[in-house]
Amino acid sequence: MRDRVPVWLQDVLKAIALLQEFRKGREKADLDGDLMFKSAVERQLTIVGEALARALAVAPEIGARVTDCRQIISLRNILVHNYANVRSDLLWPLFEIDLPRLEREIQVILASWSSAP
């Protein structure tokens, strides 16, 4: 199963790229005003959390290399199980700090993963 880890990490990167694309020309109010945009954001954040959870289950050492790893997975659980209480004002800040940082961290892990024996 460790051979699946890079696939899951690539899924994280793909979801982040889609989130960044979806955000272009948008502002925080669009998360409340555009249901399709909000749904797309929530779906990609769910994928990020699920893919990270799968990778972590097989390679627990990844958790130490991803800032707020457990919180990312918890967000996925909230989006799936407590969807009615998701507040848009808590999602928007993810675009500014969390997603760019996560993208860099995953890229570093993937680079070292591919060079590992």
What can you see in these coordinates?
By secondary structure, the protein is mainly α. The chain has one domain (2-115). The protein contains six helices and no strands. The chain has helices at residues 5-23, 28-33, 35-58, 69-81, 88-91, 93-115. Helix 1 (5-23) packs antiparallel against helix 3 and helix 3 crosses helix 4. The longest helix has 24 residues, at 35-58. The two termini are 16 Å apart. The relative contact order is 0.17.
List the helices and strands and how they pair.
Elements: H1 5-23, H2 28-33, H3 35-58, H4 69-81, H5 88-91, H6 93-115
Q: Which key phrases capture this entry?
A:
single chain; 117 residues; mainly alpha
In short:
With 117 residues, the protein is an all-alpha fold.
Poorly predicted runs of 5 or more residues: none
How many domain modules? 1
Topology as a string of helices (H) and strands (E): HHHHHH
Sheet/helix structural class: mainly alpha
Strand fraction band? under 5%
